[in-house]
Amino acid sequence: MKSENSKSRQIEVMFSSIAHRYDFLNRLLSGGRDRYWREKAVDRLNLFPGARFLDLAAGTGDVALEIAKRQDSDMRILASDLTLKMAVLGRKKILNQNLDRIIEFHLSAAENLPYKEKSFDGVTCAFGVRNFADYHIGISEMTRVTNKNGKVVILEFTTPQNKLFRSLYYFYFTRILPLIGGIISGNFDAYSYLPDSVLSFPDREKLKSIMEEAGLKDVSYKNLTFGIVSIHEGTKR
Ligand SMILES: C[S@@+](CC[C@H](N)C(=O)[O-])C[C@H]1O[C@@H](n2cnc3c(N)ncnc32)[C@H](O)[C@@H]1O
Questions:
Q1: Does 71 or 94 have the greater pLDDT score?
Q2: What is the pLDDT of residue 4?
Q3: Residue 190 falls inside a structural domain
Q4: 141 CB under 6 A from ligand 1?
Q5: Which of 36, 102, 28, 29 is nearest to 65 (CA)?
């Protein structure tokens, strides 16, 4: 528990230090592709009037905003994150787009969600699970708060399967990206942590089993952009 707390604290400090450049660097380092990845993840949700969604590790709110753009004002989205500075920037974007009646921002840790069982019709987490102090507990929590027949959707970086593409990508991901990210954000450690955390995260099949162990059914995944990222989804039965 103590080491979980200290990992969460380190992650929070790291995201606080890069929050001001987070969106800009996402667009730059992914060549604008990150928007498409989030759109594809939101496509996996069952959106309907009156539905309630939780976007966990919401960061600056891009997934919550993507859900909100698609539906009528009956829908409610809760965006939740560990890091205050990310949430403050997210809240500003939501206000600027007049979506504060639909999206609410909370601060909470994925491992201990302050929501009742079966509170949401869908739970998303984009590029967050890898950072959890304990992703087994985090995914169980995501499952717990999902309604029967609701979906849990996880968007995460993974490793490309094609060998040639993988070696080119690794060069970019482990050498170029940390350098550009470090210079622009002023935090070289944060952008070295990014490839390190991706390379030490469970592979697609392992993540699928973790979701099944958490109680999700019909778990499947889909690769995007040559397998740089994958979308995992499962249904609560
Ligand atoms: C890479 S950002 C992703 C943000 C956003 N989902 C996106 O698509 O851009 C990771 C976010 O996860 C949050 N985070 C890390 N560990 C967390 C935890 N245990 N509980 C909740 N949020 C967490 C960080 O504060 C950070 O905002």
A1: 94
A2: 74
A3: no
A4: no
A5: 102
CATH number, domain with residue 52: 3.40.50.150
- The reply to whether 13 falls in a domain is yes
User: Which of 131, 140, 141 gets mutated to test ligand 1 (max ligand atoms within 8 A of its CB)?
Assistant: 131
CA of 7 from ligand 1 middle (Å) equals: 13
Ligand 1 pocket, 82 CB below 6 A?
yes
Q: Is 35 part of any domain? A: yes
Sign of the Cα torsion 119, 66, 107, 10 reads positive
Q: Which of 226, 181, 230 lies closest to 201 in space, CA to CA?
A: 230
What are the Cα distances from residue 70, in Å, to 5, 99, 137, 224?
Answer: 36, 12, 30, 21
**Is the pLDDT at 12 greater than 80, yes or no?**
yes
The verdict on residue 52 lying in a domain is yes
Q: Is the CB of 62 under 6 A from ligand 1?
A: yes
3-state secondary structure of 197: helix
Does the pLDDT value for residue 1 go beyond 60? no
